[in-house]
From TrEMBL:
Its EC number is 3.1.2.4. It catalyses: 3-hydroxy-2-methylpropanoyl-CoA + H2O = 3-hydroxy-2-methylpropanoate + CoA + H(+). Residues 23-357 form the Enoyl-CoA hydratase/isomerase domain. This is 3-hydroxyisobutyryl-CoA hydrolase. One of its GO terms (biological process) is L-valine catabolic process. One of its GO terms (molecular function) is 3-hydroxyisobutyryl-CoA hydrolase activity. InterPro entries: ClpP/crotonase-like_dom_sf (IPR029045), ECH_dom (IPR045004), HIBYL-CoA-H (IPR032259). Coiled coil: none annotated.
Amino acid sequence: MDALNSTKPDNHQILVEEKLPARILTLNRPKQLNALLFQMISRLLELFIAYEEDSNVKLVIVKGKGRAFCAGGDVAAVIRDINEGTWRRLGAKFFWMQYTLNYILATNRKPQVSILNGIVMGGGAGASIHGRFRVATENSVFATPETALGFFPDVGASYFLSRLLGFFGEYLGLTGTRLDGAEMLVCGLATHFVPSERLSLLEEALCKVDSSDPAIISAVINEYSKQPYMKEKSAYHRLKVIDRCFSRRTVEEIISALEREALNKKDNWISETIRSLKRASPTSLKISLRSIRQGRLQGVGQCLVREYRIACHLMQGKLSKDHFEGSRAILLDKDKNPKWEPSKLELVSDDMVDSYFAMMDDEGWEDLKLPARSNLPAYAIAKL
């Protein structure tokens, strides 16, 4: 084990294996679906920075123990801390560290292979989708469920969702729809699909790859990949409707467009989509749509800086208490009955949305400062 691994009491939360030129990092909180704690994020950041400088390391494999890759950041822990009135000391520090990790993963010189054999949500998407290779399986479940929690798709989601085909990213970000491994592959969230029974063979093969060349690594993963079956009910078969509706300028227009579609044809998928939009926080929906739209035209760093502002406003709770209310209703009390304030889309004005994107007027607060990056490979430079 490397020196970094010997000093910290929380080592069991991230297991580190050295296998020839590969490093295997396993998120190890299976009972909590590998939800990321601050010290886990900080440890991953430390490891990825060290590996980038270590010429013996050619690639990094990241996976999760149990039935999840990672279900997100440990929001409940953060909310409990914030409720004690220390949002800036704890909450802001958590997001600063997490978004810095997302940036380092997105621009890393060493290829990352994420094995997404299970649940991938929120912060789990941030810890994997920014990496070079994302391997889905028949057990993969991806979602960005933040609008139901009074939050918004963060961890750089405004960058990667906005780059999916058509307006599929807006659809995923606003509705929190779950995708399986086949859908992740076809929409571009995953780069490969490997049946779970072949993962140990894949891992073994990857540990023998003495190269950081993405073409070579991709060829190895291809040997274990297959073309998965897309289920008939998949939202991906409804891209035309999604593009027609989710390309609209406002959330209200998106819902009206869906309601018009529902009049024209009976489709449970449309009514379920409308229901999930109407269940979500109106404020979150408007912030999320604006954030993803801005993400289309920005590099990953700019996206993370913007998302950090929004996250800090939501944690501070001056503009809206929806994040606390959503977390209470879904994660803490679990009554699944959040009382949003404002309660209707038309009560959330453009000016109100603007304020989440502005710098915070709070003593000691500053914009996210991302580390300088150099000697990056072409695929990383393209994200800047």
